[in-house]
Amino acid sequence: METTAHPAPTETPGRQADRPTMPVAARVGTATGLALLAGMLCSYGQAVPGLGEFANSAGPWFVVAGLLVLLAGLHRRPAVPMVLGVVFLELMHVGYWAATNLRGYPDHLSVTNFWVLMGVPAGLLAGAVVWALRSGSGRLAAAATGVTGAVLVGEGVRALLQVAATTGTTFWTIEVVVGTALVVAGVARARTPLARVIALGSGVLGALGVLGAYLLLG
Q: 215 versus 124: which is more confidently predicted?
């Protein structure tokens, strides 16, 4: 019996093939759950040798909050990702609080807690970084990369200066190296001289600003 060969389906010119996409509510819900889980894991991570500094440092929390905002996928206007950055950081605090109490260590979550208060500006900045990276602007993306690196470098240098005697230097050195690499990557990926200056300037000045804020706040 002769069979008729069917031609392979082709995409219509100018159109992409239909691909399943996750609904917005599902993306935000997933990011919300992951924020709580991340906070819980940080609490349990404190008991693991070598992970205490990672779980207790603000730099990784900032990066995780940004990744969760990126997962949520709402980047068209800056206000929404900035608000989500705050929400996800505070949910990480809730997860941390819940896990710490489950582990048998009394912990109190309060709106006047220092890190809860710092979650507001840090979350706004994390959301702004994600929006800038997704904006399509080379200059904004360069600034966002530099700022992210600056957060890591600033915190790492502060820790090496003030707490390394009790925590060791390994994690903080890695944090500084990763932050520096992000700034260098931002400069290297920039397509114009101005964007390169923005990436480098935001990295250097941002790191000095973060370091200064840590030293000022003690």
A: 124
